[in-house]
Structures are given as structure tokens and as C-alpha cells.
Amino acid sequence: MMINKRLIGTVSKSKKYIAGNVTLQWCSLAANIVIMFCITRLLEGLYTGTVDSNSILLSAGVLLAALIVRYLCATGASRMGYLSSKEVKKTLREKIYQKLLRLGASYQEQVKTSEVVQVAVEGVDQLETYFGAYLPQFFYSMLAPITLFAILSFINFPSAIVLLLCVPLIPAAIAAVQTWAKKLLSKYWDQYTALGDSFLENLQGLTTLKIYQADAFKQEEMGKEAENFRKITMKVLTMQLNSITIMDLVAYGGAALGVIMAVTQYSAGHVTLGGCLLIILLSADFFIPMRQLGSFFHIAMNGMASSDKIFRLLDLPEDRPEDAQSVPEKGDIVCTGLRFSYEADREILHGIDLRFPQGSFTALVGESGCGKSTVAAILMGRNRKYTGSVSIGGVELTQLEESSLMRHITYISHNSYLFKGTVADNVRMGKSDASDQQLWEVLTRTKLADFLRSEQGLDTMLQENGSNLSGGQRQRLALARALLHDSPVYIFDEATSNIDVESENDIMDQIQELAKTKTVILISHRLANVVKADQIYVLDSGQVTEHGTHAELVEKKGVYESLWTAQQNLENYRKDGEPA
Ligand SMILES: Nc1ncnc2c1ncn2[C@@H]1O[C@H](COP(=O)(O)OP(=O)(O)OP(=O)(O)O)[C@@H](O)[C@H]1O
């Protein structure tokens, strides 16, 4: 019942802590039996008048020792619980982390980031209690009634057997509510995550909601969701309270039955007064562990749900080749008959041929949504489920080691991520052993050096995603980091969109400088930026429609030429205030 062998096997180190926890709880029970035994002996002695000061002193000594043992066992058991929880957290988070590393840059093809975060944080936390509390209780709740039965059967067998037979009624009651509870809990979790999603989305988009005065409508929508969640929470609580009531009825009913049996046996003369008292005092202990297990029932159910999610993540297929190779130092990047779909029935790239010769400057242009970024993501190994062929230096992309690919190609998008920390920390990601002088060199190339000197130099602090910098400064810093990475291939994906003209020009100057020594692939919607490219591919709805240099394409008077003319007119209009 709620025991997942695979899960326990995965965190096998925690077995010894669970065993320790059960043993200590069992020792505590033994001490409790000794305490009850002393008390009943003493009471019987007082009743029959056979007690003397020596036996009182002896009983007091044994009582004190048993109390100390009980205290030590309780402390030890909770320490064991803590150690096994710690082990579970460490092992499972490590496994999830390693799995993500093995899935690599393409992990999003198989699992959503939010799901990974939920599983690694909340999912693992739920298993912490499963291992720390539920599992030890599961074993102890079986051991305790058997131990008590073994002892009490010597005192009065009929009472002991009645008590023992009543114990399984508790798990039977739990099993009865389990099927219903499972459905209810899964509904509860669905509504909980749905409400969490809406809350996060509305919070992130609050400014937009305010601008369009749509906040009242969203509030109403969320109010309805919250009301549904309240209702289902109340249902879950009612279910839990009801099941606790049922368990209490069984537990105390069973104990009462045991007491009645003991008293009847005493009046029939089958058991001594002390024996009868001992049965009465210990009868509740038959049921308390199982009753406690029942109250951990929802922990176990959540634990099972989390472990399913964790194993689903850990079982995701990893199509990494056994004999992965490093990227050849030299060679062109060639795509032949490249097809790709994000969703089964919607192909984005329809069998395109592209060649990026080593050391050349290639531009990819085309209308929004034509598939430019998809090509870049395929080259970076993020979209692995393509068909056709993509090779670097003659080796198929899927046969390449991911780390080698990351050293070979640097990708700079329009929103490259900057981390909270110093400028030096962020730029050094490009090359961990770079000297301060090398950092200043790239920062000078991207024209950030003067600004940083007026701040705290390389120690200037950045907030999350560089939110204390301007858009242009952020892109300059991302470029500095990329330059330091010094890879043979660079892909710029709209790296200059949404920034000021001065920053755009500075960054374009650096890209053109870089193109003299490296393979550069530039994705840009602004055609003025691609004029100097060695070759331009024009993409339309996932197909290459034109290919050539800027001059050739203008000459051709096709799609490129009409886009170019339209953009030129617009730019001249901006400069002169009237159409060219
Ligand atoms: N993760 C995704 N899941 C499903 N469809 C996607 C995903 N990413 C992109 N697409 C779809 O693929 C098509 C091509 O997108 P892509 O981002 O490659 O275009 P793009 O040419 O780079 O556009 P833009 O210039 O606007 O960035 C689009 O129709 C888009 O809807």
C-alpha cells in the first residue's frame, strides 16, 4: 500500500535511516511496555497490600530509566527522519539535474521548464515527508501490534487476539476511501496548478492589463477560479476529516473491545488484576501507530503523485550517440533537405538547402515567422528532431558532442540572459580563465568601458537579467561575453533589434569585424545590416526563395529587392521627413 519499490531503490541510502527510525520507535514502544508493566505491578501490589519500600524504589528506578530510553529513542527517531529526508532531497535533485544535463540544450523538446521546476522543487519536497514520516510509520505500524500481541498473549490470549484482529480494520477503512480520494486529489491538483498558472501570468502581465484596463475582467476570471479552488479544498478537507473520524471510530472501538474483553476475562478469573490493567493500558497502543499511518495517508498519496512525475522526467529518452564526436576544427556547415516541425501536423521548414562556408558571412532574411530562428535553434542543437541532414565539417550534428558544439558555435539573441552578479562574473562566462585585461579589451571593443569606469568597473553589480542597464548596454555586454568566448562560428539572431541606433551601429561594426576571421550567420529583419554579407538566403514560409549577394538580389528584382526598396523608403523618410 503506497509503497513504490523503484522509488525506494532509487534512494537506497535512505533505507538504513528508515530501518534506524523503525528500530528506535520499536525500542520506545518496548520502554513504554516496561513503564506500563511497572505501573500495573505497583497498583496491583498496593491493592493486595504486598508492596514494600524496596519494590517502590526499584519500580521508580526502572520507570526513570524507561522514560529516559523513551526520550532518547524519540529524539533519535526524529533525527533519523531528518537524515533520510536530507538524503532523498540530495539524491533526487542530483538525479534530476544530471538528467537535464544529459537531455542537454534540446530538453524543452521533451519537457516544459515550469514542469521541471515544479518537479525538482515541490515534487521532491513532498517525497521528503514520504520518506521521513510515512515509510517508517508504515513498517512500525505493523511491528507494534505484533510486538504487543506477543507480550499480551502470555497475559491473556483471547483479549490479545481480539485486539490484533481489530487492527487491520484501519487500513481496510483507508482502502475504502482511497479510490474516491484519488480522483478528488487529482482534480484538486489540476485546479491548484491552473490557479497558480493564471496568477503568475496575470502578475507578469499586470502592466499590460492596467494599460488596457483589462484588470477588472481578469480579476473576475481569477475570482471564479479561486472560488472553484475553495470549493474543492473544502471537499478535500471534508474527505480527510471524515476518513480521520472513521479511523478514530475503528481505533477507539477496537481499544474499547479489548478493554471489555480484559474486564470479562478478569471477572471470569482468567487473568490477574495486574494483567487486566496492563491490557487496558496497552490496548490503545495497538491502534495508535496504524491510526497515525492513516493520518499520513495524504502525504503518501502526494508522494506517489510526485514520484510518478519525477520518474516521467527521469525516463525521458536521451538520444545521445554512444560514440559522440568533437566538432571538426575546419569545415563548412551544410543543411540538405532540412525539414522540421514543432507540432506533428504543421511543418515549419520544408526541405531547405543551406551552406555556410567556413570563414564566410551569411545572412538569413525573410518575413517574421518564416523559420529563421528555427534554423538557428537546429544549428545550436536545441531542435534535434529534424529530418534531412545538418553537418559541420562533414559530421552529422546529431553525432556531435554537445559540449564541443557549444564551444564551436556562439549564439547571441536579442534577449541574451545576464545574471545577477558583477559585470566580471557575467563576461567571464565566455572564458572562465580570462584576465581582467582581456575583459577590458572586449568591453572596450563593445564601447562599454567608459561607462563601466564611471561606475564600479568590472565590479559593477547587475540585477537579475541586467535590469539596471539600458537595452543597448545589455546587448553590448552580451556581445562582449560572446567575443570573449572566441568560437569559430557566431550566430546573431536579431541581436540588434529593439535597441538604440548608436548601439545597433556599434554592434554591427563589431559583427562585421568578426566576420573577417570567423564564420558569421546573421539573422536580421533590417536589410541595411546584411548588405555587406558574402551571401544572403531569403526564406519564405519555410523555403529558400532567393540566394545571392546583396547586389545580385537587388538586380534580380524579386522579394528581396521589394523588401529592400520598401525599407530604404521608410528609412529615408525618417531621415528627411519626406519619402525618397
Ligand atoms: N516552440 C515552438 N512551438 C511551436 N511552434 C513554434 C515554436 N517556435 C516557433 N514556432 C513556429 O514556427 C514558425 C517559425 O518561427 P521562427 O521563430 O523560426 O520564425 P522567425 O523567422 O525567426 O520569425 P521572427 O523574425 O519573427 O523571429 C512560426 O510560425 C512559429 O509560430
Automatic annotation (TrEMBL):
Residues 333-566 form the ABC transporter domain. The keyword Transmembrane applies. GO terms for cellular component: plasma membrane. Pfam families: ABC_membrane, ABC_tran. Keywords: ATP-binding, Cell membrane, Membrane, Nucleotide-binding, Transmembrane, Transmembrane helix, Transport. Its main location: membrane. Residues 27-302 form the ABC transmembrane type-1 domain. InterPro entries: AAA+_ATPase, ABC1_TM_dom, ABC1_TM_sf, ABC_transporter-like_ATP-bd, ABC_transporter-like_CS, P-loop_NTPase, Type_1_exporter. The chain crosses the membrane at residues 21-43, 55-73, 138-155, 161-181, 241-263, 269-288. The keyword S-adenosyl-L-methionine does not apply. It is a multi-pass membrane protein. GO terms for molecular function: ABC-type oligopeptide transporter activity; ATP binding; ATP hydrolysis activity. It is found in: Cell membrane. PANTHER family: ATP-BINDING CASSETTE SUB-FAMILY B MEMBER 10, MITOCHONDRIAL, ATP-DEPENDENT PERMEASE MDL1, MITOCHONDRIAL. This is Putative ABC transporter ATP-binding protein. The lineage of its organism: Bacteria, Bacillati, Bacillota, Clostridia, Eubacteriales.
